[in-house]
Amino acid sequence: MTYRIAPSILSADFARLGEELQDVIAAGADVVHFDVMDNHYVPNLTVGPLVCAAIRPLIKTPIDVHLMVKPVDRIIPAFAKAGANIISFHPEASEHVDRTIAFIKEHGCKAGLVFNPATPLHHLDHVLDKLDLVLIMSVNPGFAGQTFISEALNKLRAARKRIAGSGRDIWLEVDGGVKTDNIADIARAGADTFVAGSAIFGTADYKATISAMRAALAKVPKN
Predict the structure, then answer these.
(1) Closest by alpha carbon to 124, among 105, 142, 101?
(2) How large is the angle between the packed helices 206-218 and 17-26, nearest 10 degrees?
(3) Which of 64, 132, 175, 192 is flagged as catalytic?
(4) Catalytic residue among 35, 38, 64, 192
(5) Mean pLDDT across the stretch 37-42?
(6) CATH number of 4-204
(7) Quick check: is 132 catalytic?
(8) Is residue 175 among the annotated active site residues?
(9) Where do the structural domains in the chain lie, given as residue ranges?
(10) How many CB atoms neighbour CB 143 within 10 A?
(11) What b/e sequence results for 185-197 when a residue is b if at least 16 CB atoms lie within 10 Å of its CB, and e otherwise?
């Protein structure tokens, strides 16, 4: 299993965002997690396609756009045009989940489905064969710096079982409260992609933090 570290821009210094992302990638990040909030689906407002387009020429790392917006379909083309590589959305934000997944792929991006702490996994029953990523939220979406919800470990185990049964190469991502001291337990539950915001951007040495995360992951038996 390949592990990926995905720093979340939500915790970066927005006054120097381009430099922050270049620094964190140089420190060893694999993916940039791009949080989009609309002050409607979630109680916060962040950034849109213009910011994604601005950072795209500065980095070669994949941009993983997490859409916490409703309705979701109208903004997908703009993020695809802005340079997103992966676009994920919440099933509650779409009237037709299968159609939204197809819409993302029609615009040249990989597609992901996101599950809030209280959202059941049954949404995967008829679309797992079309997905490239499953994202398990280990906090309620909307704010950075929250504490990891331990029940997410059980949901990760269940999602990993479904992915293994599909026989497909689908990323299993986790977002919320991921830190150096719990990342190994999260990996043991089945996650392979780890979104970390304040746990990375809130430290003085990004490289040391990411290296510590990788050291913890290296101790996890490979499945």
Answers:
(1) 101
(2) 40
(3) 175
(4) 35
(5) 90
(6) 3.20.20.70
(7) no
(8) yes
(9) 4-204
(10) 14
(11) ebbbbbbbbbbbb
